[in-house]
Amino acid sequence: MSFFKKLREKMAQQTNEVADKFKHGLEKTRTSFSGKINELVARYRKIDEDFFEDLEEILIGADVGVSTVMELVDELKEEVRLRNLKDTEEIQPVISEKLASLLEKDDKDTTLQLQEGLSVILVVGVNGVGKTTSIGKLAHYLKGQGKSVVLAAGDTFRAGAIDQLDVWGERVGVPVIKQQEGSDPAAVMYDAIAWARSRKADVLICDTAGRLQNKVNLMNELAKVKRVIEREVPGAPHEVLLVVDATTGQNALSQAKAFAASTDVSGLVLTKLDGTAKGGIVIAIRQELDLPVKFIGLGEQKDDLQPFDAEQFVYGLFQDAIDAEKE
Ligand SMILES: Nc1nc2c(ncn2[C@@H]2O[C@H](COP(=O)(O)OP(=O)(O)OP(=O)(O)O)[C@@H](O)[C@H]2O)c(=O)[nH]1
User: How many CB atoms lie under 10 A from the CB of residue 217?
Assistant: First the structure.
């Protein structure tokens, strides 16, 4: 079965709602990235060195990242040689298959690692990336999976952060445990864990103050928050999710690199993919950090956070070509 056919069959099993989210959320990237690849395929017709050079340029322009592009193009060349491909049209399924395999090194790792009893998810990232919004959406998603969720308002630093989380708690119908602005976030976590335990909640999602990875005090504070969580709940935090903003492109990548070097990050939430034409950043992050993207933000509504799925993502990018393939 061709890779495109496999994707078509997989997508046929999706609900229309999820398919639409990916379709609309990836529109900008699709129009620019795949539009350019389609043009390239039509312009060259025959695969040659110039074709690969132009392809490299398109991939780099979509923020895939130079080293990843080089690796990808080398692999494509090898594949073209092995399969003895001549026409550019034949290469499109190969490109998408390669992208999917780069993104899905191990399909288990994109799912949240929750345990029986209380699981704790710590959410970190710099200001303004969409952290609070993503926590609200994640709570909504987990609720939809039948979990009882509690939020801990651990960003006691930024004015308005507690209220903002409260608004999300109300919007998605989950309790928010909080103290006053300026209070010790570790104490908030302590309270929230006790509360979640007493209510036999399944998941506690902890907000933290936005911080730059080079601010030593704030990083120490984060370490303290983590210690409290570790001490109170064996095996916790079960996930440390780093939120990065896709529209900041290569900046998101360097932020993630720096964070991952100082904190044990277990996965990423990549927000605002709907707002960028450079969705290739997902591939750069996966490849250069070796960290899974676990969720992607495809809009501002509560159900606009979707679990990341490599094949779904690739389908979202090449939808037109995939649907147009003749069987
Ligand atoms: N289009 C789009 N907008 C998003 C997405 N995620 C978040 N946003 C918007 O990004 C803005 C910032 O989000 P916040 O959640 O306030 O950011 P934050 O990281 O919590 O900010 P701090 O609390 O300062 O750390 C808001 O206007 C959100 O609606 C997304 O996936 N798509």
Answer: 8
| CA–centroid distance, residue 282 to ligand 1 (Å) | 18
242 and 270 Cβ atoms separated by less than 8 Å: no
Task: Check if the beta carbon of residue 27 is closer than 8 Å to that of residue 274.
Answer: yes
Residue 129 in domain = yes
Q: Are residues 42 and 135 in the same domain?
A: no
The CATH number linked to 60 is 1.20.120.140
Whether 32 contacts 90, CB under 8 Å: no
Instruction: Indicate whether 11 and 146 sit together in one domain.
Output: no
Q: Name the binding residues.
A: 125-132, 207-211, 271-274
Residues 156 and 17 in one domain: no
Q: Is the ipTM of this complex over 0.85?
A: yes
How many angstroms does the Cα of residue 42 sit away from the middle of ligand 1?
A: 39
Q: What is the pLDDT of residues 159-208, one digit of tens each?
A: 899 999 999 999 999 999 999 999 999 999 999 999 999 999 999 999 99
**Nearest atom within ligand 1 for CA of residue 210:** 25
Domain count, the chain: 2
Contacts of 261 (CB under 8 A, 6+ apart): 213
